[in-house]
Amino acid sequence: MGQSLDDFETDLEGLIGRPTSLRPFVCDGSPLECEAFIVGFNPATTMSRGFWDFWKGGYGFERERWFSAYKAERAARPLAPGKTRRNPISNTRRVIDWIMEAAAPVRFLETNVHSLPSDDIKSLAYEDRQTAAFDFLLSRLRPKAILAHGNDAAAWMKHVAPPEAHVVAVSHFSRGWSRDAARRVGAEVAAAVNRRPYPDVAPSLPQPGESRGPR
């Protein structure tokens, strides 16, 4: 018998608490329907509203409401010294959207090895680098494909990815990506989810080589 969304919610709440400072994932609707993971190191955009503010019982995660709040908080944040403008969404968010468009109708769950947001990797304290939420998601959802971006996430996947999952490791989405490259990755993920053959990643595709900076 398959797991229910109510059971998933109860178990996740028992693990991360409610309210929580963690952001274990973002998806559109039920995480139980997600067949592919996009995995980074940890969330890079801090928000005043918590994960459970965007969760609706019996439905799952309300991505559109979360995305509206994300854009509003990003726009209201003070600019860094020397900066005169800020894009409505981050480079990382733009690349993720391109990948999802190319892979549609594949359902994605955006997650991270560590669930606590921070401005950059260095500012995430060692004691906050917990993986319990990610481990829970990996074991409960068993994705068919995992797209890991950045050295840290790619290295972690070598140790924990389920053997049946197709893992794609690429450079961090915060820099060096074109729409065309993102769409090729999306096509590879879609092929893996649907168990179709797909050529090896083209040499021009951004490969792991840099950890993320602020975004």
Question: How would you sum up this structure, described in words?
Answer:
- 35% of the residues are buried.
- The chain is of the alpha/beta class and 215 residues long.
- The protein has a single domain (5-193), classed as Uracil-DNA Glycosylase, subunit E (3-Layer(aba) Sandwich), CATH 3.40.470.
- A hairpin with a 3-residue loop joins β3 and β4.
- α3 (91-103) packs across α6.
- The strands form 2 sheets. It has a 5-stranded mixed β-sheet with strand order 1-5-2-6-7. It has a two-stranded antiparallel sheet with strand order 3-4.
- Helix content is 34%, strand content 12%.
Please tally the helical runs, counting DSSP H or I stretches of 4 or more residues. Answer: 6
- Low-confidence stretches are 210-215
**Strand proportion:** 5-15%
Mean pLDDT: 88
Quantity of strands, as a count: 7
Structural class: alpha/beta
Gross morphology is: globular
Q: Which CATH class?
A: Alpha Beta
How far do the termini sit from each other?
Answer: 42 Å
Give a quick rundown of the structure.
With 215 residues, this protein is an alpha/beta fold.
State the main characteristics.
globular; disordered C terminus; Uracil-DNA Glycosylase, subunit E; two-stranded antiparallel sheet; alpha/beta
Write the topology of this structure.
Layout: H1 5-16, E1 25-26, E2 36-40, E3 55-56, E4 60-61, H2 63-76, H3 91-103, E5 108-112, H4 132-141, E6 145-149, H5 151-160, E7 166-170, H6 179-193
Helix pairs in contact: 1-4, 3-6
